[in-house]
Amino acid sequence: MQVLDTESRIRQQIADNPVILYMKGNPEAPECGFSRAAVAALKNTGQPFAFVNVLNAPHIREKLPRISQWPTYPQLFVNGELVGGCDIILGMEADGSLKTLLENAPAQG
Question: Which residues are listed for [2Fe-2S] cluster binding in this entry (predicted)?
Fold first, then answer.
């Protein structure tokens, strides 16, 4: 079995999961207010999403901002593209575009 370096592992996670949130904590127990707000917005869409707890993955926490060009957490990726952080997620929830975006993402498998 090949061991992936951190960047390859991140790119694989993003490719394998149509909707993935890199966050602090997990959806049942977010460990910062921004992650809590992002999870609430995602749950309100009723669509499934994957997550990575960056507090348990320090190499990912350190490397992802260089890959995504986004400095803070949480970070939401849909269909391999960075959507943004908490403010963007909440704005999209407010205008209805988050639900539409997630409904049109392939089903989580």
Answer: 32
Q: Is the pTM value of this prediction over 0.85?
A: yes
> Does residue 34 contact residue 85 with C-beta atoms inside 8 Å?
yes
What CATH class has 26-102? alpha beta
Residue 86 labeled ligand binder = no
Cα 58 to Cα 63: distance, rounded to the nearest angstrom:
9
Q: What is the pLDDT of residues 41-68, one digit of tens each?
A: 999 999 999 999 999 999 999 999 999 9
Domain boundaries, the chain: 26-102
The per-residue pLDDT for 106 is 83
Rounded alpha-carbon distances, angstroms, from residue 44 to 26, 29, 60, 64? 16, 16, 27, 26
